[in-house]
Amino acid sequence: MASALETKAKEAYFDDHFELALDLYSQAIGINPKKAELYADRAQANIKLNNLPDAVADANKAIELDPSMSKAYLRKATACMKLEEYQTAKAALETGAALAPEESRFSKLIKECEERIAEENGELPKETLDVVPTNVVPVKDVSSVKDVPDPMTVAAPTKSTYRHEFYQKPEEVVVTIFAKGIPPECVKVDYGEQILSVAVNAPGKDAYHFQPRLFGKIIPDKCRYDVLSTKIEIRLAKAEPIHWTSLEFSMEVAVPQRINVSSVAANQRPSYPSSKPKRVDWDKIEAQVKKEKDEKLDGDAALNKFFRDIYQDADEDARRAMQKSFVESNGTVLSTNWKEVGVKKVEGSPPDGMELKKWEY
């Protein structure tokens, strides 16, 4: 069954039906989750769909299952280069080159990574930078390498039993994933320059996979995590002392402001910029909820409550889709389909008889 699905997935991929290929590879992985080749091939489909964090996660899983698969390192490097994570990409390429010394693409991409790293450090003249290609390598060339990358994710439940939140200090971001009674050996955490990849696979519990592209860059060697009795606590060392307005990267987020570290008191409490900026009075909230249930809402109030309920019960992908579609469409479109919203800009859709105009400042 898995081999038949794999064959159909390859046919769909070569016919440029990447969404179908992704779905078929996922079904095959559900049947045979220990086959590295499936993750490597699904990584390439994710690259074509621009699901870059998922592609990195798939490549990592393929490498975990088969560390000798050179194309998995190539897939990982391809996705990381598109994410502008050149240090991580270079490390993957060097390992892949050692496994397949006859493959010339590794050396070419290593050179490109070195040029990009030098560019970021201000070490190349502008004339040289202008000729550095922005694309990694034609996809057909990538797919011809024998091995393909992999993430470490299988399809997660629609509504996870886990939840996460974060707070930050000037020098680090602390991500907390609430999960009770998880053995440390069932938790795997990987770091990239701007990627966090978390996988929890505990017997008798739902699988949990979290692979966000982070708001800012981190220093992987200085990051660490602890598995406690009620939670997993991950400490991400910031590459720059900037204020993260969210945990995940977004094109709509304004330019971050650098934090003046010297002005922050040593005993100051860390700020919670996301879900819980203040201490929560649960008794007050419970009373408010009961009051709302007794009141009959109509008009805008009822509509706003309807959207809040959808967002509260949605999974991570649906929330991301709602935020992105609402912002990009100037409040005229609200979608929960991340696969559709995540690959393109959402255009505004004004009501009949009206037109959408952009304000100039």
TrEMBL record:
Cited Pfam families: CS, SGS, TPR_8
Coiled-coil ranges per UniProt: none
Keyword Repeat tagged: yes
GO terms assigned for molecular function: protein-folding chaperone binding
Sorted UniProt keywords: Repeat, TPR repeat
UniProt keyword Cytoplasm present: no
TPR repeat windows: 36-69
Signal peptide: none
Gene Ontology BP annotations: response to stress
Domain of life: Eukaryota
All copies of domain CS, residue ranges: 159-248
Residue ranges annotated for the SGS domain, each copy included: 271-361
Protein family (similarity comment): Belongs to the SGT1 family.
Protein name: Protein SGT1 homolog
